[in-house]
Amino acid sequence: MAYNYIEVTQEHHVATVALNRVETLNALSYAFATEITDVFHALDADEQVRVVILRSNARIFMAGLDMLDAAGRGVNGTKRLIDIPLQDKNLFECGHAIEACRKPVIAAVHGKCIGAGLDIIAACDFRLCTQDAEFSLREVRIGLVADMGVLQRLPFIVGQMYTRQMAYTGRYFTAAEAAKMGLVLEVYADQAALLDGARRLAAEILESAPLAVQSTKEVLNHSRFLPLNDGMALAIHKNMLLLSSEDTREAFMAFMEKRKPTFKGE
After folding, report:
1. pLDDT digits (tens, 9 = 90+) for 10-22
2. What pLDDT, in 10s, does the model give residues 55-107?
3. Of 2, 38, 53, 242, whose CB neighbour count within 10 A is largest?
4. Measured between alpha carbons, how far is residue 99 from residues 21, 38, 89, 152, 187 in Å?
5. In a domain, 223, yes or no
6. Would you state the pLDDT for residue 204?
């Protein structure tokens, strides 16, 4: 598919999604959010893709919500406010599409990651950043509540206390602070090192059986909201299916033959 605001490349089972609304510093418009939703639905269905790297082509990661676009769409009160959840659906769906994508998603963040940008990376499996990265939940600074999923996802990533600090203050948090709270996995000196780090992490994931990785992501996502026994039951169900897969048979054969397995995602 062709996109106006996104560049997608693929190499060795790794898809790189580059946010490319450069002239607005990737400010999230409705059309942009729709493309993010569409691209992650497509990558979820693409059997050749096993890992996704999400990055930015702009000089920062994301400048937050496109306020001019929002005002033009009537979010400033010129349309019925009760219609916003339906008419602006993809603003809320883009994070869901990333989280629901069965392939692990690695966010590579440089520069500022503001508002909607934090919503988006909170939906990713991993977050890496450069030393100059800054993170801010700005909604309280404009009199609003963050409503794209970050308040629901972030407590599972950094805990309630850090989430509340970010959400109540709206200030910028440095890369060092983000690492301390567990928001990011690694901090890199510059963008080149950041992308190298993202590719190394993707390569590590590619060593594992892709169907098992995808099933593990499903179990982890659902288990946040399930009692322990129900989460275990889901994992057992997944294994009942995986035991009949070619990859599991290949893993057992490779173990017996003392060699590295070759997984095909079948």
Report:
1. 999 999 999 999 9
2. 999 999 999 998 888 777 665 554 555 556 556 677 889 999 999 999 999 99
3. 53
4. 22, 13, 16, 12, 22
5. yes
6. 97
Task: State the DSSP string of 96-161.
Answer: HHHHH-SS-EEEEE-SEEETHHHHHHHTSSEEEEETT-EEE--GGGGT----SSHHHHHHHHH-HH
First to last CA, the chain: 25
Q: List the structure tokens of 244.
A: 């009949």
- Domain-embedded: residue 263: no
Q: Which two tokens stand for residue 70?
A: 């929002």
Which residues constitute the domain of residue 233?
210-256
**Same domain for 248 and 143:** no
Region of residue 2 (left: phi > 0; alpha: psi -120 to 50; beta: else): beta
Is the pTM of the predicted complex or chain greater than 0.90? yes
| Any domain includes 265 | no
Q: Are residues 75 and 30 in the same domain?
A: yes
- Tokens of residue 259, six digits: 């060699």
DSSP SS3 for 46: coil
